[in-house]
Amino acid sequence: MNFDLLKMLIKGIVVLILVGILAGLIYWLLTVSQWSWMSVYYTLLIKGLWLTLLLWIFSCILGMIFAIPIGLVQVTGPSWLAALAKGYCTVIRGTPLLLQLWLIYYGLGSLFPKIAMVFPDFRTDFMWLIRLDAFWYALLAFTLSFAGYEGEIMRGAFLGVPRGELEAARAIGMSPWKVLTRVWFPRAVRLVLPTLAGEVVLQLKSTPLAMTVTVMDLAGVVRNRITQDTYIVYEPLMLLAVIYMCLTFLTVWAFSYIEKKVPQKR
Amino acid sequence: MAGQPGFPEILAFGPTGYGDELLFGAAVSVAIAILAYTLGLLIGLIGAMSKLYGSPLTRAIMQGYTTLVRAVPELILILILYYAGTATLNRLLESSGFAAIAINGFAAAVLVLGFVQGAYSTEVLRAAIQAIPVGQMEAARAYGMSPWLIFRRITVPSMLPYAIPGLANLWLIVTKDTALIAVVGYTELALATRQAAGNTKMYFTFFMSAGLIYLIITLVSQKGFALLEKRVRRGQRKLT
User: Fold this and answer.
1) Nearest-CA distance from B31 to chain A in Å?
2) Of the segments A14-18, A228-232, B111-115, which one has the largest average pLDDT value?
3) Of A2, A6, A56, A102, which to mutate for an interface test with B (greatest number of B Cβ within 10 Å)?
4) pLDDT of res. B2
5) What region, left, alpha or beta, does residue B21 occupy, with left being phi > 0 and alpha being psi -120 to 50 degrees?
6) Distance of residue B16 Cα from the nearest chain A Cα, in angstroms
7) A176, CA 20 to 30 Å: which among A64, A216, A236, B164?
8) Residue of A207, A212, A249 lying closest to B71 (CB–CB)
């Protein structure tokens, strides 16, 4: 009975606060907020969206490609390779992506000019490497990160395929490569499909980090151009949140569609 | 660049090295993480309870909260809440006759991260509470226990085994999310590292040292949560 009172009180406070925030938000949207910058910056925003999508989709695809061997060697590989892959996953998953991104952008980015100072030929032959756009550093960082997270999941998926199926495949006389491509890998991918949606959404939600290394993705356009030029802070951020929300829901919907299409017994 | 110490010396303590700056940043990061995590757990507990037992209105509000927060990148939420939160507070203060105050970056970071964490903990705790066998609750109610007693004696102890893995995951996420606070310009481990690296141009040394600190925090927490899980699982069947 004491608890009931407490519950009522907490509920009342929470509802009151949230209603207050909602009312304030609506008032702000209707009267205070200004959206005139949209007409000036929409081409930049579309370019930014394109860059965000590229960064997201390619880092997922490339990361997945790296993740397969990382997961596989942890299950069947020689012990030193398994330890290496496990260590890689632990390091990637145990440190913030922001730090990895900065290490790659500032670290590698400062390494190439240093090499060029020692080897003059390097400057002429690898000018493109020195002049590399921040986008490529971000793509590398996000790919490595996705490979680390997904490698751990692929390890579980490879382990999750029933042993009997692999033994049956081997008993039929399939070569190890054929067992992998025809039985082990397809079954593992199906096991991983439900968690893949979550991972891909997480990856999408980490793409705005790229703005911290001057990539002009959606968040970069909003923070480093629109807000700096016009001193409008909240409206572009709101737009950013809404776009990311739409992308998230779209992804979740698309994956649930694919999952329904893929036949799976059990 | 003359006179700048080399690799191991640059991490020394005192005015010549950056070791003390990094460790202070790490302490700030851990403090933010612990407070934000606790705040997130509190929000999560209230959120899970109101999602499970609340009125339709409360449920709808909590559903909106968890869906919105989980669909928007943490960095953008932090930017919005950090700037909008401080500005709104100051405007409210001004309109009610007080002077605007400079908002403590530490407190803002804790509140913002806690708010984000709350949405995720709500889901973890809700799922854990739902995983409790119905019979246990019914038995408790049949004994005539009050709701508070049921919560204390049945709900919390029997939900913990289901909740700990998810909560451990959330703790690991929040320790890494503290790095995002660097983007709004509050000096914790990531920003301290970036400043040190920028001053000395020794990027690899500093980012790797900071990475090592984060890694140690992660590994120690993993060990701790494994022990905790063993403790709350006592008396249950072993997981194979």
Assistant:
1) 16
2) B111-115
3) A102
4) 46
5) alpha
6) 22
7) A64
8) A249
DSSP state of B127: H
Q: pLDDT class for B240, splitting at 50, 70, 90?
A: low
Structure tokens at A220: 């970069």
Instruction: Judge whether residue A256 has pLDDT over 60.
Output: yes
CB contact under 8 A, A95 and B73: no
Give the residue ranges of DSSP H helices in chain B. 7-10, 19-53, 56-71, 74-95, 105-130, 134-142, 147-150, 156-177, 189-200, 203-232
Rounded-to-integer distance, Cα B73 and Cα A142, Å? 15
| Residues A94, B215: C-beta atoms closer than 8 Å | yes
Q: What is the ipTM of this complex?
A: 0.86
The answer to whether residues B27 and B221 touch, using CB atoms and an 8 Å cutoff, is no
Q: Please give the residue of chain A at the shortest CA–CA distance from B220.
A: A94
Structure tokens belonging to residue B199: 């001053």
Interface with A, mutate which of B50, B61, B76, B218 (most A CBs under 10 A) = B76
User: Can you give the pLDDT at residue A37?
Assistant: 86
Do B207 and A106 make contact, defined as CB atoms within 8 angstroms? Answer: yes
Q: What is the mean pLDDT of residues A158-181?
A: 92
User: In Å, how far is B71's CA from the nearest CA of chain A?
Assistant: 5
State CA A152 to chain mean position distance: 15
Amino acid A14: pLDDT: 74
Task: Find the angle CA(B125)-CA(B127)-CA(B129) to the nearest 5 degrees.
Answer: 65
Answer for the pair A7, B49: CB distance below 8 angstroms, yes or no: yes
- Least confidently predicted of A201-215, B79-93, B194-208: B79-93
Choose among A239, A220, A222, A244: nearest CA to A29.
A239
Would you report the helix, strand and coil content of chain A in percent, each value rounded to 5? 90, 0, 10
All domains of chain B, ordered by start, with CATH? 21-232 (1.10.3720.10)
